From TrEMBL:
Source organism of this protein record: Shewanella benthica KT99
Claim: Membrane is one of the keywords in the record: yes
Protein name: YcxB-like protein domain-containing protein
Segments passing through the bilayer: 41-67
Keywords: Membrane, Transmembrane, Transmembrane helix
Length: 156
């Protein structure tokens, strides 16, 4: 009789980890369509400014367009900055894989994803995207040994 699988490891939520999470889970749209909201705010603001409406409101709308442009242009930088400023940054996380599911435990977060709740596992170049009803989580291959990698690949 084989014993049930269980794997536990620890890693730090550092900038390299957050950067890998972003690179593997976010698709960046570089087409002009990504900037449509920014252009809309900008042109509405200019139109309000040219029609003699409240100048403060007009400049505010133009500023919103500029902020939205920066959000699209510097998406990864902005996202990484927010993660590094969060209270979870630089904390240690204990990752547990077992027959029940994937557990993630730190000072601020205790979560458990049951295998029965997992709707899809997407294998990326450097990890796994685990889709479940509450959202999507990323597990890096760097923190897993060969046995754990084989266990997750069997779940795919």
């Amino acid at each position: 009789m084989t014993s049930p699988f269980s794997y536990t490891t620890k890693y730090s939520l550092d900038k390299a980890h957050f950067s890998e999470c972003f690179d593997e889970s976010v698709t960046i749209d570089t087409t002009w369509r990504a900037y449509t909201k920014a252009l809309g705010f900008f042109f509405v603001g200019v139109a309000l400014l040219l029609t003699g409406m409240n100048a403060y409101a007009s400049w505010f709308v133009i500023g919103l367009g500029t902020l939205e442009w920066g959000n699209v242009k510097f998406k990864k930088t902005w996202w990484l900055w927010r993660q590094m400023m969060s209270k979870a940054a630089e904390n240690e996380v204990t990752l547990t894989l077992d027959e029940q599911g994937i557990g993630s435990h730190s000072f601020y977060v205790n979560s458990q994803i049951l295998w029965g709740d997992v709707s899809e596992i997407i294998v990326t170049a450097r990890g796994f995207l685990i889709k479940h009803p509450a959202g999507t989580n990323y597990v890096s291959k760097q923190v897993l040994n060969e046995t754990a990698l084989a266990f997750i690949n069997n779940k795919v």
